[in-house]
Design brief:
Largest sheet of chain B: 5 strands, antiparallel
Distance between the termini of chain A: 31 Å
Number of helices of chain B: 2
Helix content of chain A: 25-40%
Shape of chain A: globular
Structural class of chain A: alpha+beta
Oligomer: heterodimer
CATH architecture of chain A: Alpha-Beta Complex
Number of domains of chain A: 1
CATH class of chain A: Alpha Beta
CATH superfamily of chain A: tRNA-splicing ligase RtcB
Radius of gyration of chain A: 21 Å
Number of strands of chain A: 19
CATH topology of chain B: Archease, Possible Chaperone, Chain: A, domain 1
Number of strands of chain B: 8
CATH architecture of chain B: 3-Layer(bab) Sandwich
Radius of gyration of chain B: 14 Å
Shape of chain B: globular
């Protein structure tokens, strides 16, 4: 993959495209990567991150994280902070899957205790947590109840008995984006999502049983603070978002913004997927309020999945979820825009930070962290491929330059179609089982598309974030059981 | 209904190119390419349920964007996977109008092996253009 000749090395982990790279760039674009990762970066990343640098009101830099790859509008891994007065909000900077995110729950079980029951556990998860194209959940909500839920987020779950009160404290934004207005959401969006609460979806979404082996603990003190105290402790990590509801909210506003962007606000963009509106306009504010509804639905989706997981573990081990120590480590979102205060040129300034396939990573002592993590920094959950493993990281004070943001996954390097040509789902399942990973999927093709070799080396991605001072390694988790859509 | 998937763009999503001798045919090809991402062998869908779709847009490409969006909507809202039976596109003073009859059946993984869920049609590199042979559409679907 050819790098643009204008790309210059700023440090061992920062690469910059200057404003002169493209007409219209308001700020330079910076990509976080090691030399190896920058060489492997998709061509689309350079094109897309420099398009982002042209958006009105962008502050300092357009960023891309080390797991960056070709997306639509923003690259996946794209980060842009906008001035709320002069800047824009863009659905293409958040993604269709609003508040797609990761949740990690631990247990006090060890691998030796889980291993004999692994198949039973994975099979029970597979039947209890629906996945795949258009899958529907077990909750039956009326449209009105669904709309109420999208304004309340995880608090709704607490009311309904699907959450422990500590879960909310351990969810980014306490599981509720304040200011969500269901009146700004179309009926079409509700119709697409009202019966999908508690479902995984498909693509790269999954729910995985993992083990923290002693040799994979990098920071023992931090690991303890995050609740990993036993050798070979078992945890469950899952990845999903706002399902058809969020996808439709983004689609609706993308079309609205296209209509008003140029004619009403005189804004031109280099890619229609970057359609945007001034943040401080009626359209921009309506999208922000609707996006929050979708973000809240995603928190509820992951909360209900956690509730189902606790039921499954409780039934298989005949012990209560409390007794099994099934507490959350954290829930992070990686597709959002949020108003945050950052220090710009020595002064605090409120900014609208878009993160698309990028995780917020607050350093120790920052406001907005649960009290129990104020000394460690924010837990950051990085999902790897189903064959290789995942990471738990912690945010650092040195992440300020990137608005306290780090990677979100390992990042794909191979197209889905290519992966399907190279791998067969049935053989992959068999091979993985021989290596001690039991996987179930509703789609053989979907399984093949997620083969480990279709992804970047997660160790390299995580190392890049550490070298760049964005986040530090706490522990690595290896997969033993997985369900996929 | 000719279409092909493009490996060289869109790493995590699915890009396709669909062609047709006229607008009707390229719309039908693009619809088939979209449904085929979600299930294997869309030609095995039985025509059990019918859906009438009426859309209009000033631009032909955005009409296609809306049309593909209908397939994604029906997949979630009605659990229906659809193919094009009949389609008619007319050009008037205020743009383009589409009238189509789609048919198909409810999602049943036992009958139709599932592919990947299409979250949305994106506008990144989205294009509908005239060629010597007729029309060509390029789209990236968010997976």
């Amino acid at each position: 993959m050819a790098q643009p000749s204008a790309l210059k090395k700023v440090s061992d982990t920062i690469w910059e495209l200057p404003r002169s790279y493209k007409t219209g760039m308001l700020v330079p674009a910076r990509i976080y990567a090691t030399e190896k990762l920058i060489k492997e970066m998709d061509d689309g990343v350079f094109e897309q991150v420099s398009n982002v640098a042209c958006l009105p009101g962008i502050v300092n830099y357009a960023f891309c994280m080390p797991d960056g790859h070709w997306g639509y509008g923003f690259p996946i891994g794209g980060v842009a902070a906008m001035d709320p007065e002069k800047g824009v909000i863009s659905p293409g900077g958040i993604g269709f899957d609003i508040n797609c995110g990761m949740r990690l729950v631990r247990t006090n079980l060890t691998y030796d205790e889980v291993k004999p029951r692994l198949k039973e556990l994975v099979d029970a998860m597979f039947y209890r947590i629906p996945s795949g194209v258009g899958s529907t959940g077990l909750l039956r909500l009326s449209h009105d109840e669904f709309r109420t839920m999208t304004e309340e987020g995880s608090r709704w779950c607490l009311k309904k008995g699907y959450a422990w009160s500590e879960d909310l404290e351990l969810t980014e934004e306490q599981g509720c984006f304040k200011g969500a207005k269901a009146s700004k959401v179309s009926q079409r969006a509700v119709e697409r999502g009202f019966d999908q609460v508690g479902t995984l979806g498909s693509g790269n979404h999954y729910c995985e049983i993992q083990v923290a082996k002693p040799e994979n603990i990098f920071d023992a003190e931090c690991a303890r603070a995050f609740g990993f105290t036993l050798p070979n402790q078992v945890a469950v990590m899952f990845h999903c978002g706002s399902r058809g509801f969020g996808h439709q909210v983004a689609t609706d506003y993308l079309q609205l913004f296209l209509k008003v962007m140029e004619s009403k606000y005189g804004i031109k963009v280099l890619d229609r997927e970057l359609a945007c509106a001034p943040f401080n306009s009626p359209e921009g504010q309506d999208y922000f309020a609707a996006m929050k509804c979708a973000a809240n639905m995603a928190f509820v989706n992951r909360q209900v999945i956690l509730h189902l997981l606790r039921q499954v573990f409780s039934e298989v081990f005949q012990r209560s979820p409390e007794d099994l120590g099934m507490s959350m480590v954290y829930d992070v979102t990686h597709n959002t825009a949020k108003l945050e205060t950052h220090i710009i040129k020595g002064k605090p300034r409120e900014l609208l930070v878009h993160r698309k396939g990028a995780t917020r990573a607050y350093g120790p002592g920052m406001e907005g962290l649960p009290a129990k993590y104020s000394e460690t920094g924010q837990p950051v959950i990085i999902g790897g491929s189903m064959e290789t493993g995942s990471y738990l990281l912690a945010g650092l004070a040195t992440g300020a330059d990137a608005f306290y943001t780090t990677a979100h996954g390992s990042g794909r390097t191979m197209s889905r179609h290519q992966a399907k040509k190279m791998y067969r789902g049935t053989k992959l399942q068999h091979d993985m089982e021989e290596r001690g990973i039991y996987v179930r999927s509703v789609s053989w093709g979907g399984l093949a598309e997620e083969a480990g070799a279709a992804y970047k080396q997660i160790d390299e991605v995580v190392e890049a974030t550490e070298l760049a001072g964005l986040s530090k390694r706490v522990l690595r988790l290896i997969p033993i059981g997985n369900i996929k859509g | 209904m000719p279409y092909r998937y493009l490996d060289e763009i869109a790493t995590a999503d699915v890009a396709f190119e669909a062609t047709g001798k006229d607008l009707e045919e390229v719309f039908a090809s693009a619809a088939e390419a979209t449904t085929h991402v979600m299930i294997e062998e869309p030609e095995r869908l039985e025509r059990k349920q019918k859906v009438e779709v009426r859309l209009s847009n000033e631009e032909a490409d955005m009409l296609l964007f809306n049309f593909l969006g209908e397939l994604v909507y029906y997949k979630d809202a009605k659990k229906l996977l659809l193919r094009v039976d009949e389609i008619r596109i007319t050009e008037g003073d205020s743009g383009y109008s589409l009238e189509a009859t789609l048919s198909g059946e409810e999602l049943d993984p036992k009958k139709h092996p599932l592919g990947a869920d299409v979250k949305a049609v994106t506008l990144h590199m989205f294009k509908l253009e005239r060629t010597e042979e007729g029309w060509k559409a390029t789209a990236i679907l968010d997976i």
